[in-house]
Amino acid sequence: MRTVGVLALQGDVREHVATLDNLGVSTRLVRREADLSGIDGLIIPGGESTAISHLLVTSGLREPLCTLIGGGLPIFGTCAGLILLSSEVLDGRSDQWSFNALDVVVRRNGYGRQIASFEVPIAISDGATVPGVFIRAPRIVHWGPEVTVVATHDHGDGEHPVLVRQGSAWGCSFHPELTSDVLVHGLFLDALQEALR
Ligand code: GLN
Predict the structure, then answer these.
(1) Confidence grade of residue 196 (pLDDT, cut at 50, 70, 90)
(2) Domain count along the chain
(3) Is the whole model's pTM more than 0.90, yes or no?
(4) Of 8, 19, 113, 148, which has the maximum CB count within 10 A?
């Protein structure tokens, strides 16, 4: 049985826990360094990346997480979580930082402000479709050759990645945790099982 941590500093923590519950996965809320021991993977929820980046420092989680992610801990970030995993953040606050686990450049609020939130079906590469809820979502504007694009969305100006992975790090512009669809979490968990085999 695997235990997946959910970073519980800010954001839609409960929704990720509920999705993992639906998949029968045991979860651990991660608020301090001691909570990291024994987790097999970690989810960084959607919320506010500037707040989460600040709280990662004050909670003392930044350095131990850097080490774990560098060592290949399976990690999945949604929306603000994707911002925190990216290599470069455009339109970020000057003091916000990110883990550099995915070779992607993201533009904060790159799909518009809160009022421009939308939901569209997103086709996943295996032919299935999931509901994509975009709320002040980061847009992936550049991505390196190491990045696998799992799903894209055309917002009127060509296809852009909205679900990517690089090794055991996954990032998603939208919020799979805000719907009852578990497919995206399932992809991450399958990869986690594979990585730990
Ligand atoms: N725009 C937010 C940020 O910069 C992310 C929004 C979200 O997670 N729904 O953190």
Answers:
(1) confident
(2) 1
(3) yes
(4) 19
